[in-house]
Amino acid sequence: MSLFQSLKKKIVGKNIPIVFPEATDVRVLGAAVRLRADDLVEPILLGNPDEIRALASSRGLSIDEITILNPSDYPKKEEMVSAFVERRKGKVSSEEAQSILNDGNYFGTMLVYMGIAEGMVSGAIHSTGDTVRPALQIIKTKPGVSRTSGAFIMMRGERERYVFGDCAININPTAQELAEIAIESAKTAEIFDIEPTVALLSFSTKGSAKAPEAQKVIEAAEIAQKLAPHYQIDGELQFDAAFVPAVAEQKAPGSSVAGKANVFVFPEIQSGNIGYKIAQRLGGFEAIGPILQGLNKPISDLSRGCNEEDVYKLAIITANQSLAK
Ligand SMILES: CC(C)(COP(=O)(O)OP(=O)(O)OC[C@H]1O[C@@H](n2cnc3c(N)ncnc32)[C@H](O)[C@@H]1OP(=O)(O)O)[C@@H](O)C(=O)NCCC(=O)NCCS
To answer: Residue 133 C-alpha to ligand 1 middle, in angstroms?
Structure first.
């Protein structure tokens, strides 16, 4: 069974409510209609209903059975404002909250926080920062996780499937944060039916180079092994030592991960972001993500260059993440 067949099977008929703040974008609207028609999620569209209906009818899309909520005319707005002010603990006044919650990403994130939706998919017309910031402020990270991070599922055909993290959020994580990213990346792998073998990547393998950058990765591997002894985690490893069995034998004999890794954890965002794009553009891998990990509830960030299919797939992933928690 293909990855998406398997992910769809887990959510079909469950009516998991997923909120789409960018419903006036045709890619998002088209995906929401397909998701409903395929009985995969229960979309909640945000925006001006007249505008959304006009767009749907101009594209021949039927949205009769889909819920539309207008942030500027929402019956439970007062309840939402109070919950938001309470959650932000003195950081926003009621007046500020009234105005902030007209923003679709804040409004959508509050629907998830209040349990009206189980997840959110946004970012087709918003930057990563604008999409993710409300989640960091409202949904927050799970106990034991100090930083949310962004992983990519890298796929080529049906047989090659890897997790790359963090390629999207933390600019320069500490050793402790990197350890948490490694563990969360392992959990993400499990959602995608990948049994995780986690390599913390570096330019050095098992002490071959001495530098603070490599030392951070060594420490992160030690912390991660202590925090999650049930996972196979090792580092520091160069990519070839992590991935190629013959190189692993040479450079890291005795490592339970070297030569077998399928979850690759990058030391900071530059190598992570560059690395996934090289695999995508030179290696012909499909990059699915970033999948935000470590949050209490799933919030997903689309790329602004996304198409309808990307929105459709990310919503399926988001619904699956909501089951995993
Ligand atoms: C994600 C990002 C936008 C957050 O930065 P920010 O908006 O400046 O966030 P702030 O520092 O103002 O923090 C806002 C809140 O989020 C929290 N926060 C910030 N980063 C966090 C993280 N990685 N995990 C968990 N919480 C985080 C802060 O603690 C703060 O909480 P508080 O308001 O309750 O005290 C920022 O890390 C970023 O721009 N990362 C790179 C994104 C990017 O360009 N990626 C490449 C393309 S995919």
So the answer is: 6
Distance 69 CA to ligand 1 centre (A): 27
* Helix/strand number for the chain, H first, E second: 13, 11
- Strands of 31-103 (E only): list them: 41-46, 67-69
309 forms beta bridges with none
Asked whether the beta carbons of 205 and 236 are under 8 A apart, the reply is yes
Ligand 1 pocket (Cβ < 6 Å) reads 128-129, 132-133, 136-137, 141, 147-148, 168-171, 273, 290
pTM: 0.90
Q: Are 161 and 272 in contact (CB under 8 A)?
A: no
User: What is the predicted pLDDT for the residue at 194?
Assistant: 94
Nearest ligand 1 atom to alpha carbon 301: 48
* Residue 189 C-alpha from the chain's centroid: 12
Write the pLDDT tens digit of every residue in 9-41: 999 999 999 999 999 999 999 999 999 999 999
**CA–CA distance, 7 with 316 (Å, rounded to integer):** 7
The encoded tokens of residue 306 equal 């996304």
| pLDDT per residue as tens digits for the range 129-178 | 999 999 999 999 999 899 999 999 999 998 899 999 999 999 999 999 99
